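So, is this right?
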Amino acid sequence: MEAIMRNLFLTMAKSQTANRLAKRYGLRFGAQRFVAGESIKHAVKTTQQLNDQGLKVTLDHLGESVYTRDEAAQATADCIQTLDVVKEANLDMYLSIKLTQLGLDIDENLCYDHARKIVSRAAENGYFVRIDMEDYAHNATTFRLFHKLHAEFPNQIGLAIQACLHKSKQDLAELGKKGVNVRLVKGAYKESSEVAFPDKTDVDKQFIDLLEQHLTSGSFTAIATHDETVIHHIKQFIEKQDIPKERYEFQMLYGIRTQLQLNLVKEGYPVRVYVPFGTDWYAYFMRRLAERPANVSFVLRSMFKK
């Protein structure tokens, strides 16, 4: 049943009709638990609250699968505005971007120009930008554009890698040689068995293997997981390998395992919370529902709450 529900929500995440309806009716039915709000004002307030608790933040102005040049240009302007607003507020954060939001499905050169504008502004303002890895259909072009940007801004840009993909071990080895700041995730997209591990056990194993691989490469590793078994294992590995705090951090999603985040901070570990905001929240929300059955039950309770 869990696999059926996961596939259902991942399929729903791709529905443009449902996405349009979600934008029209705003954050409802429990989405506000996982999304900080629809405006930069909400994002700044949430970021400040998390910073006050000792938590760093990744801001993500939600959006993906943009199909017009005007939409891509607006998304770029929104990201630049975010960088300017957080600088003025002096917040501890960095920015996450999706290349499809910047026009990757329209024109690769257009997308590169937009991404470069964002990373350039981030460099001016003293912030870091992470490129999210999307579905496998965009994997090769994402790497191509990332390497172009990293060659010009090596200290200002990083990449997310999905442990579920067969190719990720080799990809990570190449990124480790270049000293790339990598965010390691298990992966939240529906992929074929030709390119990804279909069995969760295999994904979990590769996830730990990749974490250990990058942690010992000398490069920065963002450990993106809520899995306490993985966290316990990595804490022991970090201690055994004597890896300094400057080379890693735990990362979790806004609205999920909040107490675990705070417990890690109390223990002295660096923790960053991924905080999404904006009106284009639907696809992100569907993937959160696909990841954990507990999220679905929360939404159902919200729907029938009076």
